Amino acid sequence: MAPHRDDSPPVPCAAAGQKASTASHLLFRSFKVAPHMVSSGSGIHLRLADGRSVIDACAGAAVAIIGHGNEEVHEALLEQARKVSYVHTQAYSTPVAEELANFLLDGRPHGLDMAFFVGSGSEAVESAMKLARQYHFERNESRRVHFVSRRQSYHGNSISALSVSSNVARKVPYQGFCYPHVSHVSPPYAYRYKTEAETEDDFTGRLLRELEDEFLRVGPETVIAFVAETVMGATSGCVTAPRGYFRGVRSLCDKYGILLILDEIMCGTGRTGTFFAFEQEEGAIEPDIVTGAKGLGGGYATIAAMYVHERVIRALRRGSDAFNHGHTYQAHPLSCAASLAVQKIVRRDDLIRRCRRMGERLEALLRTELAGCRSVGDIRGRGLFWAVEFVKDRTTRETMDPALSFGGKVYQAAFERGVAVYPGAGTVDGVRGDHVLLAPPFTVTEEELAVVCRVLREAVESQEKLYL
């Protein structure tokens, strides 16, 4: 997605300079710029209507994990469509929905016992917030109404999901309209928030003290959950937490009876090199609720999931024996069929391990290609989920002038050279800072990664000549 400031709504990843058509009745994200028309997709490539081919180095929005145009998934969709394309889950279920849940949660990994399938990441976060509230309600703790989240986070575009988010640009029109019982603490964003005098452990300790202080400030008996991206996504750009952070968070939540919701909409489903991103965190933590989307359906259908720990399920069984929530298109059979086909391919072809291996290659290429770029301040990430943060001065880490939209210009320069990356603005505090994100399909080759990194370097250098 292209960068957006307070006065500029987000536009799709492939947007370039063409004027929005007045003939179309389709409401785009921007009235100023229309997205490019895509005629077809195959593997890592998108074919545009004007004949150009673009390498999709961001997999749309970290979605297309097995690439575009996979015939095996197409056949699974057709097979399910011939059986039944829709049922209302208040009265019915389908074998494909049951099989998908069982496939993902076989053996109750990390205590996660049940999956709830919806249509988008925003719906998954909404569902998680409601379930967390109901969990406390069933336990006669109805005073719990508050959520704590982190600055520079993003959890979705519905009102409640946006409320726990901290994406400044997206929230501007909705000030005073969001869920009021939310507060935010500092992100575990070492490049910007750790002081020079602090060690990594010092930084972790300070973040945990701040979180506990916030619980105490609002009253821990009023807090429903702490909501956090395991690896922070597009708003701050692939930020990983310091050593011991999530272990400490889990301990604090347990201390005060607060649930831990990990948002893995973007970073999960193998994207960072393990199916659940939290599996790589120190301390073998078990979250109470996890959300996942993006790569879950690989872009072949709209699907997201909420994975629920058995202790939360037990509370509902002992209380009302129901989850007081639902959607018309919940566990949609075609979406579940697409997701099941994608995830079977991922497992059969060992693509998560491949993601880890190719991620190591991507990191090495980025560090080599961009070593001489004066504007590159930080390169960070995990698996096939990497961000490059731009600065005006590498020594002081001074940001570019926000009006320049440097990340957007790098994106545009790369797109003109045939590579689509995912730019972001307001990286540091919602206003200052620029980055681009790379999240190619797990099927990407070393040769394709080399092209992507070379083109990115050329794009960065072209803008440095103009603005530095």
From TrEMBL:
Q: Which GO terms describe its molecular function?
A: pyridoxal phosphate binding; transaminase activity
One Pfam annotation reads Aminotran_3
Superkingdom classification of source: Eukaryota
Identify one Gene Ontology CC term for this UniProt entry.
Answer: cytosol
As cofactor, the record names: pyridoxal 5'-phosphate
For this UniProt record, the keywords arranged alphabetically read as follows: Aminotransferase, Pyridoxal phosphate, Transferase
Q: SUPFAM superfamilies from the xrefs? A: PLP-dependent transferases
PANTHER family in UniProt: AMINOTRANSFERASE, AMINOTRANSFERASE CLASS-III
UniProt similarity note = Belongs to the class-III pyridoxal-phosphate-dependent aminotransferase family.
Q: What is this protein called?
A: Aminotransferase
Q: Which species?
A: Drechmeria coniospora
Could you read off the lineage of the organism from its UniProt record? Answer: Eukaryota, Fungi, Dikarya, Ascomycota, Pezizomycotina
